[in-house]
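QA checklist item 7 of 12: single-chain prediction sanity check.
[x] sequence parsed
[x] length recorded as 339
[x] structure emitted
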Amino acid sequence: MCDLKIYKINKYQLQISCNFGVANKIANHFSTFIANRWFHPLVKSKRWDGRIFFFNKKDHIISIGFIKDLLVFCNEQNLSYKFEFNIEELFSNITKEQISLFIKSLSLPQDRTPYDYQEKSVYLAIKNKNGIMELATGSGKSLIIYIIIRYLILLNKKILIIVPSVSLVNQLLSDFKNDYKWLEVDNYITILYSGQKIDLNKMVLISTWQSLADKKSDEFFQQFGVYIVDECLHPDTIVHVKEKYFSLDNKKLLYWKYYKKKIKDVKTGDLIRCYDFEKKKIRYEFIEKIYKNLSIKKNNVYKITFDDNSYERMTGNHNILKKNGKKKQVKNLKNGEKI
């Protein structure tokens, strides 16, 4: 009889069947204290110890991203385990050598040959199927995305790429066509934003998240086998936060306080409002870790105002596609230029 039975609930979560003692071990191992916890109001008032748990002891659910760490933990603790699903579903059998050969087959321009970290990012994305990449501004995300989708098209995968703004829809398409010399790009890619008609017979859709907001039917999203999200938030972006207030003896929850703060002011351990795409509902989740974009220290953030008084904020080294088909960094733009 094994100590753990591991079930796959969906693409994102695992459920572990085990006894109470083993569950406590897993919960303690897959937990961390927030940074500077002693300064957090709830910790200072002794209503929370500042620890975040990544394993839910109530329903025994853990993120699928912890699968490798879970197996290492089991081996270290001499715990036996059994998968109640085909573990090979989680990973592809692609090798680094095969990725290198595929990249060569794309015949990229010499000045667009991927760096080692870009090739590694492509390999890990295809190998692990699910994941988050942390890449600074100007690190060549579009080339990584390009190589990934070219490979997945060969596997007959339909792909949805979500970007934060209209300018990035056009920039990504321009990169594929002009920088990476994908001559057949128009046969495979359709774009979606205000006023654009899409051709869902094509393999790849590039869209802003705003344009997808009214696509509420499951049927629309289920046609895609792959989702790639390129998400950027400005430091002044407003997020919704909630906080617990207890009685003086910390035994009774008195009320919840709801308020807003800028994303640059959030701290590890804050409860922020987010949307659960799996359960299709809004919920609050603890912030587990905060990543700072170090490039901001070297590049000022610019505010670009358009004719209709709408605006976007971008770093100075961000490339913008101009009306004449050429790219220009934001810091070099001049008033009146058409983009």
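[x] summary fact logged: The longest helix spans residues 141-154.
[ ] second reviewer sign-off
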